[in-house]
Amino acid sequence: MRQIGPFASPGRAFAVACIGIASYSVMDAVMKGMSIAHGAYSAVLWRSVAGVVLMMPIFIARRRPWPGREALILHVSRGSVGGASVLLFFWGLVRVTMAQGVALTFLAPLIALFLAAATLGETIRRSAIGGSVIASLGVLAIAAGQWQAQASTEIVLGSLAIFAASILYAGSLILLRRQAQVADPLEVALFTSMVLAAVLLVGAPFFSSMPAVALWPGILGAAALGSVSAIFLAWAYRHAEAQVLAPVEYTAFVWSAILGYLVFGEHVTVWTVAGALLIIVGCLFAIRGRVAPAPQTEAAA
């Protein structure tokens, strides 16, 4: 059993993790606004640049050695896969409600179970198959809600983009398992942002431009919120077991619904709520009987 410090407890760790998820949800709202104002490509590009600017001084101050060849290969691989996931997610989030977008991302841990079986040789358990069936019903419920509302092509494309982002994010989680064995969290966060910024800068002349001065507070704020979220979650998972904290991830749906309504005037349909609940139940059913791996956010991507 993990030992915790005198000022930590599972309850305190749970509360801190909730703050971390709330911070990340606020960042999602900021990034959605930035993506609407300046395009998803520019929003992700300049947030990544801001992340490097914020984290590089800390990395240098700690006098960390430059990563070796194996670590660099993993950084580039995960940065590229995770970056594509983030770009697709925010492109899609512009076109759907925050609650619906976040609900679809809950599929990532479930998809990761099957990718782990394909790439790491892990055994697919019957509970994972049953969970995938339940979660699939959740996706169908969300799709049914769109059909009933006669959703536009843009909304459908946005949902498909976020679904694709979930698949890529699941792949990045598999790479993260290997990445975490050769690098500490700060190095992982910094180099993920560096790789993503470098890749997106190649296409910047065609898909982006320097954001207006008025947008930079939002860009820096998004990068700072992502960093705060990562720190809070890292602290929480240091002081409590992953199986205690895993459900915290699903509080993101509540925050996304509240922020979507307050900031963008979005209304959550019954179909979206039902779909989110089925996806959550499916994920929890799939990981029952085992300690879930600590959820990882793309806060630094």
Describe it for me?
Helix 1 (10-38) crosses helix 2 (40-61), helix 2 packs antiparallel against helix 8 and helix 5 packs across helix 6 (126-148). The chain is mainly alpha-helical. Helices cover 76% and strands 0% of the residues. The longest helix is centred in the first third of the chain and has 29 residues, at 10-38. It has helices spanning 10-38, 40-61, 69-93, 98-105, 108-120, 126-148, 153-179, 185-207, 216-239, 242-245, 251-264, 270-286. The two termini are 32 Å apart.
Helix share, percent:
over 70%
Parts with pLDDT < 50 across at least 5 consecutive residues: 1-6, 291-301
DSSP strand content? under 5%
Taking all Cα atoms into account, the compactness measure Rg is 19 Å
Round the mean pLDDT to the nearest integer and report it: 82
Main sheet record: none
Instruction: Give the topology string: H per helix, E per strand.
Output: HHHHHHHHHHHH
Coarse morphology: globular
Can you lay out the helices and strands and say which pair or pack?
Blueprint: H1 10-38, H2 40-61, H3 69-93, H4 98-105, H5 108-120, H6 126-148, H7 153-179, H8 185-207, H9 216-239, H10 242-245, H11 251-264, H12 270-286
Keywords:
76% helix, 301 residues, mainly alpha
Provide a compact summary of the structure.
With 301 residues, the chain is an all-alpha fold. It contains twelve helices and no strands.
